[in-house]
Task: structure prediction
Amino acid sequence: MTMVPAKLALEDGTVYTGQAFGARGEKFGEVVFNTSMTGYQEVLTDPSYKGQIVTMTYPLIGNYGVNSEDRESYRPLVEGFVVREMSRIPSNFRSQGTLDAYLAENNILGLEGIDTRALVRRLRVRGTMTGILSSEDLDDASLVHKARTSPNIVGRDLVREVMPEKSFTWTEGFNCSFTSQPLPARPARFHVVAVDYGMKWNILRCLVQVGCRVTVVPGTASAEQVLSHRSDGIFLSNGPGDPAALGYAVQSIADLTRKNPPPIFGICLGHQLLGLALGGKTFKLKFGHRGANQPVLNQRTTRVEITTQNHGFAVRLDDLPRDLEPTHINLNDGTLEGFRHRRLPIFSVQYHPEASAGPHDSSYLFEEFAKMMG
Result:
């Protein structure tokens, strides 16, 4: 196999040299890292990673291949993918192909063979940075200049690049190749409108499992369009980028909260947008929370939940309006991970209770949503 050189340049002038895999080309994005040991296909296909070059901290990636069941959207949406070593021989009975071929098929450039520990340490100390990943331009000075002049993720509306163009109905529950039959879902008792800002498919599967018929609407839908479906509940999805750049979404949610809405549940970007719509403020984290091992304290039960997270922005705890009660706190840095409205049937969390490949400590939140509707 011929090794093709490739480079990653950061806006601070640091350049990492390795080998390309997957596709060839050049992409810019916010360089971030994920600490999960498994679930790389879910990371690749999570629309929340649009606009980002993702570095995996686990040293060997691709060892169990890829398959059609573990996708969170139609295709990978990361701008680039950086690993210490890419496994060329997958070993898993569910595997339907290699990571290398999967990225090549979907025009995603990968970089392997660099010291990912050094890269992650730099991002932890200095914060996430814009970077350029290239197998075409290998001139260090040129790449650093491109990294410094490429658009920053702050203020960019990336939701319009990943949301659906029109409404549709979702009916699929869980179906895993470990079992001969699909996992049973409850009969559909509730109708939920899910506002899609870049939603992971597993969220929709979780809603179906707890007895929901789901109508998905684009993230640009107005309050009137959402309420016209006369649903039992409203779900606000995850998605990419800066919540403060999404004025249309904030306005729509604010309008919803003033119209005696049915129960509302938000996750990740949906949580941030709810916070803004209800009078809170958001800020950019230094290097974000991305991984499957973030400890969160549920303040109502005093139990600690291990959670999957993927976000670079957060709702300010200190500026939380009086109408909002903090319910979950990140035990690593004390940031807000969830809140509940004191009067209205509204709650949200920053992390991902639907997480695949796990953990599943927080899946009870979908049950809580169903109880609020029932």
The first helix runs from residue 40 to 45.
